[in-house]
Specification:
There is one protein chain. The chain is α+β, with helices and mostly antiparallel strands. Helix content is about 30%, strand content about 35%. The chain is built from 4 helices and 7 strands; from the N terminus they run βββαββαββαα. Strand 6 and strand 7 form a beta hairpin. The protein starts with a strand and ends with a helix.
């Protein structure tokens, strides 16, 4: 049995596990949002960073990558790694993954994705805020994996290289750059 994993945040540029194939594409009826707090990678409990999660959004698509992991040993290692890395994401979903916008049938079905929900069990969910508030929090946060702004700018760059202009990400990145320039003056 083959395992597929969908990455829509840092998994896009840093899988961290062995895989056989990587496809660029999208999932339907979700959108990427900077609503998840990060107290273990891009922030601290005192100053949480923000990372992306998915929220249901009828008619929208979220671009990312799907990793194919074939060997049973590689699947076990990948799952163990992902359960630690994505531990602040409290839900797993299995979704259809598309590689072409005109296709009505998915390229792959049953692709696993980690989602940070707004449920009470997810104590790191921060939820919606203004672009300015999100950007300010990102610019000021840093954790064991580095500055939160690196995550934001890597995500923006990688999405643009894939041909994806994610408006939410781009607005926050533009505001973060404005804040950084303002602090340097």
């Amino acid at each position: 049995m083959v395992m597929w994993v969908f990455g829509y945040g840092s998994l896009i540029w840093k899988a961290g596990f062995q895989y056989d194939e990587c496809l660029v594409g999208f999932i339907k009826d979700y959108r990427r949002v900077f609503y998840q707090g990060s107290t273990d990678h891009r922030g601290t409990p005192e100053h949480p960073g923000r990372t992306v999660t998915l929220e249901p959004a009828q008619g929208e698509v979220c671009w990312g990558v799907a990793y194919k992991v074939s060997r049973k040993e590689d699947q076990e290692v990948a799952l163990t790694y992902l359960e630690v890395r994505e531990k602040q994401y409290d839900q797993k979903a299995y979704v259809d993954f598309f590689t072409n916008e005109t296709d009505s049938s998915p390229a792959v079905s049953g692709v696993m994705v980690y989602i940070a929900s707004p449920e009470k069990v997810n104590r790191n969910y921060l939820g919606p805020a203004t672009v300015e508030e999100i950007a300010k929090q990102i610019v000021n946060a840093e954790g064991p994996s580095g500055p939160n702004r690196d995550y934001l700018f890597n995500l923006e760059k990688t999405l643009l290289q894939m041909g994806c202009k994610d408006e939410h990400v781009m607005k926050i990145a533009d505001e973060a750059r404005r804040l950084i320039r303002g602090s340097e003056e």
